[in-house]
Write the structure tokens for this entry.
Amino acid sequence: MEQTIKQVIIVGGGTAGWLTAAKLAKRFNSTDPAAIQVTLIESPDIPTIGVGEGTWPTMRKTLAELGISESTFLTKCNASFKQATKFVNWKQAPQNGINNHYYHLFTSMFDSNEFNLAPYWNLGDIGRNESYADSISVQATICELGLAPKLITNKEFEGIQNYAYHLDAGLFTDLLREHATSQLGVQHISANVTAVNLDNDGYIDSINTDTAGNIRGGFFVDCTGFKSLLIGDALDIPFKKINDILLTDHALAIQVPYESENTIIASSTISTAHEAGWTWDIALANRRGTGYVYSSAHTSHDRAEQILRDYIGPQADQLDARLIKMNVGYRDKFWHKNCFAIGLSAAFVEPLEASAIFLIEASANMLAELFPRDRASMGLVEKQVNKSFKFRWDKTIDFIKMHYYLSKRDEPFWQDNKNLNTVPDSLLERLARWKHQLISNYDFDNVYEPFPLDSYQYVLYGMEFNQDLSFNKSSFNKQDIAKQHYAQVKVVTEQIKKQLPSNHELLRKVSQYGFQKL
């Protein structure tokens, strides 16, 4: 291997491979022949998993930095706007046929670090007959009405409300591939990997392919999905299963076409709890992506498919379902020697909070920022990256598990999720503190915390977590300010309802006119 790294080889395409390739090439300025070059080897025979269609607001910054127009992205990827996740029947099973729900939103009207309305809502000073989300934000109302987060007159990536996207993962991969190769200098090789060759020190030296011969590089990124050809097979880094914590192990997916051109396009991902898992429902511009994530220890595959088809309704009778076995857990190391695993080759947890693409973004960002000059400096970066992503994945697992643990559903699957043997001590400790203490910034002392304070407040209060702050009630003595903020939420809610177009209407205008460039 060369002392100075001049060539990065990414093995595997999909969202993980092409997003990483684009970010690295942009950072390295790979259109300059003298710069670090990025090559992606993609099998022509292996389809991508392609069901992860939800993103976080970070995707807007990613697209802008890569130089991809928001209007182009929306139209080419059949994308739509996402402003929240709506959790249906997670608090408890439907009562007398009536569903319950809460929202995990992207936008609070007031920064909780500057003035947190949560204790005043908790103590009944504001929003006594309203949900926590409705008391502090206009966005739940916007989502219920199917409204967009912005106007056609807003600039690209700028919105009246914070937002992310729902996207077609296959089309997104196509867009990234075209942009990375034509604009950013990424070299694309279509070939199957036949062997991974190590040098005497255990570093990857080269990749053998069936049609492109032997390809050498200084650094390698494993984006080969569950196969994990580099970090797993070649470098023998073990995979740590977490099926004793997150009990779901399969998913069924069905793509559902819209029945009419005027169908309402939901502004949130809809996650609905069922007897042995939950369904996702993601509204794109041209269809819905639906699926059922479940535990095969608590239901049969046939029963799971029936649950999903019943959820979709009669339209599902004509649609094919795709079964996906989920390998839930993460690698003992994400970076080893001169290889960094990104995407499914590194880790996988169920897509309840759409964390997968965000963690791909985070991985590519950190690699680009800390990219080592040579082998001598690689070990220190390896240590830092592994520590960071072990923390991020553990916190993601805790956050997802919290949804199950707080539920009042009583089916065997849900009872097993509340068994203390399945709950991380780190989560139990936080929840024990929060029984009598407000969630605070002292609970989030790491810059790499994936879910901020607001996210925990939305879920805990949405799930009706029993938090008693009465012993310290006298310290929350700014009721007048809280009531003024609450009143402002109500005023702005009425104003914004009249101002914003529907998701459907805005997407139609984008296809016709596009947004103004930044």
